[in-house]
Amino acid sequence: MKLLENKVAVVTGASRGIGEAIALKFAEQGANVAFTYLSSDEKAKALEAKLTALGVKAKAYKSNAAVYEETETLIADVLKEFGKIDICVNNAGISKDNLLLRLSPDQWDEVMDVNLKSVYNMTKQVIRPMMKAKTGSIINMSSVIGIMGNAGQSSYAASKAGIIGFTKSIAQELGSRNIRCNAVAPGFIETDMTSYLKDGEGASAYIQQIPLARFGTPEDIANVCLFLASDMSSYVTGQTISACGGLCM
Ligand code: NAP
């Protein structure tokens, strides 16, 4: 028996990186998957084909998670196409690193909108159908940077810390409706977002700080999301699970 048989999942920002690994992992476990992206049309089409080849229903939606109206349209379209939403993974995110002295208001706003407002936008849309169905799992992608902070990442850290507070609040608001809401806090994961760390001269300095002595893979994070999406975590809500090789304890 697959862990997500007959479930419908929505994953934001899945054309590459962690989101793509989550979409694939969920499909392998039997879920039908609707996923979003912003600009990578070809990658999104390729993922849609890969998911469909796994024998599930899958559809890519070009939809900006930072724009409320777009998420409203997205969720209406997904419900029409898939009939229900059991799982929502708010994964879309960006980083615009700069020391505060040089951080412009526009850079601040962009990170807040894509990383934090998007989580409000999507969660607000999915809770109605989940409440009706009396079941749901919402998974928000935070970061260890939201717990530890990091010089040059004040906007990113603030957005990811905000996700943790939001997650705990939604868990409290909707627990009685059997809707769970949890966050995942990845450490350094090998994706486009961190390629400058891995390939740079400082890579070994980062690895020295990680007890498991390696960067994580997108699949490491997808496995945690699978646990949180499935009934294996039926008594887990309001939590932030760090998946960081021990970087943050
Ligand atoms: P990534 O490789 O840069 O991929 C980002 C994904 O998000 C892409 O699919 C991109 O779509 C999509 N996206 C960006 N802005 C969007 C928007 N406004 N609306 C919808 N989709 C949007 O990033 P990643 O490393 O996989 O990170 C995924 C999540 O994990 C992010 O929230 C990130 O903050 C978090 N995280 C990552 C790490 C890490 O080390 N990589 C660590 C901690 C937390 P397009 O391809 O179409 O642009």
From TrEMBL:
It catalyses: a (3R)-hydroxyacyl-[ACP] + NADP(+) = a 3-oxoacyl-[ACP] + NADPH + H(+). GO terms for molecular function: 3-oxoacyl-[acyl-carrier-protein] reductase (NADPH) activity; NAD binding. It is an enzyme of class 1 (oxidoreductase). The keyword Iron does not apply. Pathway: Lipid metabolism; fatty acid biosynthesis. The active site is at Y156 (proton acceptor). NADP(+) binds at G13, A14, S15, R16, N91, Y156, A157, A158, S159, K160, I189. One of its GO terms (biological process) is fatty acid biosynthetic process. Belongs to the short-chain dehydrogenases/reductases (SDR) family. Catalyzes the NADPH-dependent reduction of beta-ketoacyl-ACP substrates to beta-hydroxyacyl-ACP products, the first reductive step in the elongation cycle of fatty acid biosynthesis. This is 3-oxoacyl-[acyl-carrier-protein] reductase. It comes from Chitinophaga silvatica. The lineage of its organism: Bacteria, Pseudomonadati, Bacteroidota, Chitinophagia, Chitinophagales. The gene is fabG.
